[in-house]
Description:
30% helix; Muramoyl-pentapeptide Carboxypeptidase, domain 2; disordered N terminus; 321 residues; Phosphorylase Kinase, domain 1; 6-stranded mixed sheet; alpha+beta
Amino acid sequence: MRRSNGRRRGAYVPPAFLILAVLAAALALAGWFFSRGGFSGNGGDGGSAVGVRRTAGSDGCTLTELGEAAVHTGELILVNNWTPYHFPEEQPLACIFDGKTGSYYVRDKEVYLAPEALDALNEMMDAFRAQGGSKTVNVVAGYRTAAFQQHLFDQSAEKNGQAHAEKYVAQPGGSEHHTALAVDFSLFFEDGSSREYTGDGEYAWINSHCQDYGWVVRYDEAKEALTGIGDEPWHFRYVGVPHATVMAEKGLCLEEYIDYLKEFPFDGQHLTVDCGGASYEIWYCAGTAACLPESGEYTVSGNNVDGIIVTQTVDTVEKVS
């Protein structure tokens, strides 16, 4: 029923009472709005939402010194030709051949990934096959040493020229493959033939859904000025589900995303992400000390530049099949 001038049939609402009621409703709506993070954006098929949440302070978290090495390790480290990888003394590696599922191929027994990246790769490729994709994807590159990256760069420069090598091959120390968080795809067919992976046709599903499994297509022609690398639809980088979701929804390459996260310091608004049946809260801490939750599930990653990103799982929803 439509109301007008504070009156309705059979009742009289005093103007002062009406004003107080409207103010109370407005305050309640504002409280709900900010408790939900200020704003949200639908992420399409994944049903994800990205927003910000106002924080009350440092309750429930402790400022912890993690050391310089923490800035240079983790799933979100930025590596490019001007932000070199810091090689650790020991690096956990998993053999893809030994740990993969039957949904894809791998070049040989000498291709390695970080264990968490291999788990995510298996999930993504199993999902690709389950929705009708063919078993033709072949992982041809994973972890690389600096020496092997130098070999590839020199080989490309000799074959295609120095300019071509600088555009399509990272310098030794500047390759994401050093992190063991990146893979290159090719295609392999039952008749023994192979061809380049371009991410089109049936494989467009992988390139458009990879963020649901924590992967991003790292190099896009439109971002070449920022990444220093030309278009490579076959090169995937693992960053974790909430971060891949934000990057995909906002169209950010990793260089842009690392800068974007600095807008969410611990003592300010936090980035919130709802995706994959879970809710995440993300904040950035400059330097080598980070405010870490005193309880609950969270991950910590350096950005390989100047600080640390904390990703806390604040809620999970059990998926119903």
